[in-house]
Amino acid sequence: VAVIDDDRPSESLLGPEVMERRLPPRYFGEGICAVGDRLVQLTWKEQQAIVWDKELRPLHKISFETTTGEGWGITTDSRHLIVSDGSSQLDFWDSSLVHGNDQGRPARVVKSINVRDKDSKPITMINELEWFRGSLLANVWYTKWILQIDPSTGRVLSFWDFSCLPLAPHRRRTDGSFNGIATVDERRGEVLVTGKNWGKMYHVRLHLP
Fold first, then answer.
1. Distance between CA atoms of 179 and 186, rounded to whole angstroms?
2. What is the per-residue pLDDT across 182-192, written as a single tens digit (0 to 9) for each?
3. pTM
4. Neighbouring residues of 50: CB distance < 8 A, sequence distance ≥ 6
């Protein structure tokens, strides 16, 4: 992995912050992804996904069940919503629910895969997800690893260790876990990575096999 020494302000990569919406106190927000002109956000233990429009107005909710009863990470391959729950299992939901308006309609699981290493041992604590070049990037909670996962089989194709990331001057070693991945440029293999409460993002280039 290469850390790109990039002096461009974050707005040049992400655009300026244009709006903010706070969740009701009863929800603990988790992973979020864009599906067309809508956003889908998981909640941690409430077993509901919230669908927002592009103005961050809530449209409806999708109820769901997972193996742990929790929602962690979410991404999309344009046909499915792909969801992690802290176990080794990833569920693929029918994404057509996003554009419906039935309040509380349950998610329909199309298929599930289990993430496994080269020895076929399950890898648990799968957290943040990102669809990237036809495969899944996934963070493993409590580590600084990002895995590249075959979405058909769950097999780990490669992985990157981000322990090399320098600590920002204002960051303490006790700060939150490494758990953020966002695509910048698929063709060049560039992503942004960050962690909970880090206050800083790293622009990196992944060397994919």
1. 19
2. 999 999 999 99
3. 0.90
4. 23, 27, 40, 41, 43, 58, 61
